[in-house]
């Protein structure tokens, strides 16, 4: 009721919202289509239609297609049915079945799994067992979050699993995505791996702009996903295992526990950051017990890992009221109940953090942690691909790099969703210009790529592009960064130290200029074992680079 209220006031601007839940068979569907068309023509009403795909008959599928094409304003609500071995059940009860005639829609909107009776749960579990013994193929469902830094590692693991074979893979997909880059990459994934099942997931209405004005759109998407996560139960039911993102952990893990589906977290940052996420709630509880009079969060001394100074924490964590902080604390408390962690790192890079997590020093009884990094690009995962050959060969940026001397170019990039202010852009531009270095700068001026309408020349200031012509290239386009980093022309990487960028930069000197999120923690890993501070690092790298170039 509250949701309906919210939807009425938020989504539909006071317009009523009618949801049609038709059944199967053309005799049932046609009257629905007619009724819906009439209502649509009448206007002043939001309409959604619960749709089960694939339909029983081709005719039904054709009619659904035509219908949604004709009335694009109607919202299609995809419903995935619970597993139901109709053939076996009806054969037992009634002899030969009448073709598929009794598809049962269990619940819509799906209730939380908790609201099912014990008998219902038992029958679902029995169906799961039937399904696995019939198919004999494990089915892994991925529930990723949002933002390219979160999606790319998922796509890489999904691609690796799909190449490996012997497993059915489905991917919970929320469309439209926040950014165009995410949409492009989803399209590419499903085109490249047609065997992967796309499970469309529709979010509940959430007036993010009103509730959290001015917040990062990706953080808001995480929140929207979290608020709709209870609807995932029926989608998850029947799968062999779930792999989800840490941003959704506190909502997805309990659902999986409830239906006895193993749930792993694919952690897209470093193991040190994982130890911080796991330990941060304990740190706050300890502060509470000590009634710490400091008033602040303070340095976080992660047992067995390292002490992270307050100034090196993700800065939103200093304010416990921030949405990011609340999400992180919730997730941090719940992740101890996951069945395991897959982390994009490797033992040689983070031996201390991995050992502390595995030995239960960070949090006693912490689930198993598997270091599966560095993850290989999903665009170059075929066994035939030659790892040394840059996949970006032939792109305009790669062609430009081809013309530059070996190890002469500073590659400057700050990830996919870290907008640099115009003031900073001018400062960086001035620095690059006066350094005399060759450079390739992948510039993002907005958090969401779709909002980026600025002209390069305007952002960079009068004459900059002319003055650096030949030795400097600036682009706002999406580039295949991993491939570019393998290009022999690149000699130094100036990075915001997003974890994917750091791990892809192996072999290229990295100058870390950490921004928000986990960047500072990642930067400490980059220099792990050393006691450099940022300025020392900067001078070390620049000195080395200048020597190399001369
Ligand atoms: N990326 C890319 N091309 C671009 C921008 C970003 O390939 O034009 C990739 C980059 O290689 C990395 C990811 O997007 O894999 C960004 O993740 P990261 O953890 O480095 O930073 P975030 O954007 O999450 O802060």
UniProtKB/TrEMBL annotation:
Record family assignment: Belongs to the UDP-glycosyltransferase family.
Keyword set includes Transferase: yes
Gene expressing this chain: gb17163
Name of this chain's protein: Glycosyltransferase
Organism: Eleusine coracana subsp. coracana
KW rRNA processing (keyword) present: no
GO molecular function: UDP-glucosyltransferase activity
InterPro entries linked: UDP-glycosyltransf_plant, UDP_glucos_trans
Gene3D superfamilies reported in the protein's UniProt record: Glycogen Phosphorylase B
Transmembrane segments: 32-53
Record's keyword terms, sorted: Glycosyltransferase, Membrane, Transferase, Transmembrane, Transmembrane helix
SUPFAM superfamilies: UDP-Glycosyltransferase/glycogen phosphorylase
